[in-house]
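Same chain as my last thread, 84 residues:
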Amino acid sequence: MAKLKLDLHEIFNKGGKIDHELNRIIREAVEKKIKLVEIIPGKGTGALRKTVKRFLNQPDIKKLYHRLEVDTKNHGRFFVHFKF
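reply #2:
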């Protein structure tokens, strides 16, 4: 199964870039019919995790994917599942 991966460690302090990259990866998954996107905000203070969850819970984004899963072994990673 093909998947896309977005590691946010390199841009963690660039607020506008984070939203841009999240939007890009979600749109790319939809366009290419990729069923799984892995997003890595890291563990840290949790601020970036909250930003990612807030982005993914926006109504226009949430309607694009099937479900959101937090990795049980690594809480610094999300899996966004798509159904096509």
